[in-house]
Write a structure and sequence with these properties.
Layout (H helix, E strand, L loop, with lengths): L13 E6 L20 E2 L3 E2 L1 H11 L3 E6 L4 H10 L10 E6 L13 H6 L2 H4 L6 E6 L3 E2 L3 H11 L3 E9 L7 E5 L5 E6 L13 E12 H12 L8 H12 L2 E5 L15 E2 L4 H10 L27 E3 L1 E2 L2 E2 L1 E3 L2 E2 L4 E3 L2 E7 L4 E2 L4 E7 L4 E2 L4 E7 L4 E2 L4 E2 L3 H7 L1 E2 L5 E3 L1 H7 L2
Catalytic activity: alpha-D-glucose 1-phosphate + ATP + H(+) = ADP-alpha-D-glucose + diphosphate
Family: Belongs to the bacterial/plant glucose-1-phosphate adenylyltransferase family.
Pfam family, one: NTP_transferase
Amino acid sequence: MERPQTNAPLARNAMAFVLAGGRGSRLMELTDRRAKPAVYFGGKSRIIDFALSNAVNSGIRKIGVATQYKAHSLIRHLNRGWNFFRPERNEIFDVFPASQRVSEDAWYRGTADAVYQNLDILKDYDAKYFVILAGDHIYKMDYELMLQQHVDSGADVTIGCLEVPRMEATGFGVMHVDETDRILQFVEKPKDPPAMPGKPDKALASMGIYVFDTKFLIEELERDANDPNSSRDFGKDIIPNIVKNGKAVAHHFENSCVRSTQESVSYWRDVGTVDAYWEANIDLTSIVPDLDLFDRNWPIWTYSEVTPPAKFVHNEDHRRGYALSSLVSGGCIVSGASLERALLFTGVRCNSYSHIENGVILPYVDVGRSARLSNVVVDARVQIPEGLVVGEDPELDAKRFMRTANGICLITQPMIDALEE
C-alpha cells in the first residue's frame, strides 16, 4: 500500500488505547491495593506513565485507558497527572472503567473485550489508526515509527516485538516470521520457541503492542464477539486469526526504541515480580543506568506533587545525614541517616542512626531511629519501627516479611503490625 504524500505525522490520526486492568499478582502485596500499572516506579512515576508518555511524545493526542482491578489509585493518578489534554485542540484523554456496558453480568473478559465494550464511544473519536498498548512495562518507544511501518507494509496488524534469547521466550507470545518479518505463526508461551531467520539463538517475543487500521479492528472485534468459543483476548484469539487469514507483520523494538546519548542498550522491562521490580529501580542509582530518566528530549510525564526540596541534616559521628549512589525525591528528610544505593520516593523520612542499603522506599514511609534495612522494597506509608533490622538474618526475615528467592524483602504495614501482636 502506497503511503499518501503528506508531511503530517501518522500519530496525528491515531488513538492509543492502554490496557491497564491487570492485577499483577506476581508483585505480591504491592498490588493488594492497586493495579500493576499504578505501582510506583523510578522515584516519581507510576508504571503506566511510560506507555502514556511514549504516546504523547510520539505525537498521539487521543488516548483511552481501560481499567478494571482495584482501579481507584490508578484513576486518581490519571485524573491528577494526565488532565492537560484540551478538547478544543482535538485532544482526548478518557478513562474506561469496566462498567458492564454490554450486559449486566459482563465485566471485561479479556484484552479484546475491553476495547469491544467501548466501541460505541471509540468510533466517535474518528481515529484512522489504533495503537493498543499494555500499561505495565517500562520502556521508551516512538510509536510514529511503528505506524509508518504499518502503513508502508500494508499490514492488517503490526505487532511490536523484542528479540530475546530463544529459550527465554517460553513465557511470551512468540512470532514465527519469514525474512520479510511477515508473521507465519503466533505461538503463546511455547516450550520450544521458533527461531528468527538467520538467528537460531534468538526469538521474537510480543510486547503486547498492536497497530491496526481502525476500520479493520472494528470488524475483527465484532467478528470475535460473535464467536462463542473465543476468550476475547488479543494474544489468544484476535492475533492468531489475523495471522491465519490476513497479514500480520512484526515490528522490531530496536527500530523505534528511544535512546539518549547515555543509553547503550534498547531498554524494556517487565517489572512483574518483586525481584525484577527491585532490580529495575535499584539500577537507576548506577552511575550510568540502562534507563536514562534525565533525558529531556523524551520526558516521562507524571503527576508531580508540590513538595519542598529534599533535606539532609546532622553532621556528627554516627549521625550524619548523607546519601551515596542514591536517588532522593522531593519532600524527603534524611535526618542523621545514611543511604547507599537507595531510591527514595516522595516524602520519605529517615530518622537518626538509621541505614538503608539497596532499598526501594515508596512514598511517605517513615524509617524509625536505628533501623537497618538492606535489599528491601517498602510499600507506601509504612511506619518502620525503631531498631528494626531487615536483610541480615534470612530465616527471621522470611518469617516476618515476604522474602523472595533472591533475598529481597517486601515490607508492608500489615506485616509491621503483625510484629507487635
